[in-house]
Amino acid sequence: MDIHIVGLGNLGSAFLKGLKDLRANTDIYLYEDSKDVRQTIQENYSLTSKESLNVITEGVLILCIKPQNINDFFDTYKDKIARDVLICSPIAGLEIKTIEKYLENNVLRIMPNLLIGEKNGFIPFTSNYEGDYLNFIHNILKNLGTVKKVDESMFAIVTALSGSGPAWFYELSNQLVNAGTELGLSLKDSELIIKELVKALPLLIHEDETFKDLVNKVKSPGGTTEAGLNSLNDASFDTIILEAIQKATQRSTEISKELNNE
Ligand SMILES: NC(=O)c1ccc[n+]([C@@H]2O[C@H](COP(=O)([O-])OP(=O)(O)OC[C@H]3O[C@@H](n4cnc5c(N)ncnc54)[C@H](OP(=O)(O)O)[C@@H]3O)[C@@H](O)[C@H]2O)c1
Fold first, then answer.
1. Which atom of ligand 1 is nearest the CA belonging to 67?
2. Which residue puts its alpha carbon closest to atom 44 of ligand 1?
3. 16-50: b or e for each residue (b if 16 or more CB lie within 10 Å)?
4. Which residues does 199 contact at the CB level (< 8 Å), separation at least 6?
5. Do 76 and 127 fall within a single domain?
6. What's the pLDDT score for residue 49?
7. 138 and 99 co-located in one domain
8. Beta strand spans in 141-239 (E)
């Protein structure tokens, strides 16, 4: 299968990292605007990226460019993309109906996160066709993480929770490091403590336990954890998180409207 990746920034390079040594029989073609990024890809993967697309006759086109670049992209390249090519879009906010204004192709909308580079992503998807066209989901995507069909109306919230998800945990970790330094630890020690913690946590997460269960395992009545959790509750931690996810969800919906010229 031919796989064309357009845009090799954060997500495009995560795709490349995850895909490059799959056993599946794939030929990967890369396209990237930025000369510096093309050079980095050459150095890291010994693969050459082109600046622009030629005619694409078959396979899958994975669009890893920013939402603001997508309308220009379709205006420039829509006549070079054959009808049989599967369009795979992880672009935040870009609805299938917007792509259908340019192309009649099968479209698979996904919202992965950067963990696909480690073959450990979560990949919600929806499509404008039945079944598994080109077996792309089964043969390719399933190798990069857990796939799950999701109604397109849920994509904004899924984007906020999962697509942006790593950032919530990085920011929480960042604030824990700051708290450590504020209270007297060196930055190096504080970073080390939180990094080791975050790296080890997945070992304790099991399918049959909720996060609430896990919290209860750490705290004991009158103990240190409970004191901290009470302070979080007093400061409306739940509301702070809810509002952040609401803002991210709203932004995704706004981007959809902007891209669809609504
Ligand atoms: N990053 C994530 O965690 C994540 C997660 C889920 C979904 N996404 C989606 O993935 C998309 C890419 O995000 P990103 O964070 O990877 O962005 P990024 O780091 O800015 O990468 C995009 C790259 O595409 C290049 N580019 C733009 N137009 C191009 C064109 N016509 N042909 C070839 N290359 C082109 C850009 O080059 P220039 O800078 O020179 O324009 C840039 O290097 C976004 O739509 C985002 O919503 C990202």
1. 45
2. 66
3. bbbbeeeeeeeebbbbbeeeebbeebeeebeeebe
4. none
5. yes
6. 97
7. yes
8. 145-149
Q: Model pTM greater than 0.85?
A: yes
Tokens for 120, please give them: 């450990």
Of 117, 127, 174, 131, the closest CA to residue 151 belongs to: 127
* Per-10-residue mean pLDDT, the chain, length 262: 97 95 86 97 95 96 96 96 98 95 97 93 96 96 96 94 93 98 98 97 91 94 96 97 97 91 76
Best residue among 5, 6, 10 to mutate for probing ligand 1's pocket (most ligand atoms within 8 Å of CB) is 10
Q: Whole-angstrom Cα distance, residue 162 to residue 226? A: 28
Boundaries of domain holding 103 = 2-150
Residues present in the chain in total: 262
Residue type for 188, please? K
* 142 and 181 in a common domain: no
Amino acid in the structure at residue 223: G
Q: Which two tokens stand for residue 90?
A: 């992880």
> Among 122, 146, 129, which Cα is nearest to 85's?
129
